[in-house]
Amino acid sequence: MTNRMILNETSWFGRGAVNELVPEVLGFAPRLW
Predict the structure, then answer these.
(1) How far apart (Å, rounded) are the C-alpha atoms in residues 26 and 28?
(2) CA-to-CA dists, residue 13 to 1, 19, 33, angstroms
(3) Out of the domains of life, which is the source (predicted)?
(4) How far is C-alpha 14 from the chain's CA centre?
(5) What is the pTM of this model?
(6) How far apart are CA 28 and CA 22, in angstroms?
(7) What is the structure's pLDDT at 22?
């Protein structure tokens, strides 16, 4: 496994996690306030 492949996997997972997390946080935050 090359470093570039690891970086690509990491960046893809990072984007996926953010895309999943942001709507959840935005949807959940109003209930906290």
Answers:
(1) 6
(2) 17, 10, 30
(3) Bacteria
(4) 4
(5) 0.32
(6) 10
(7) 80
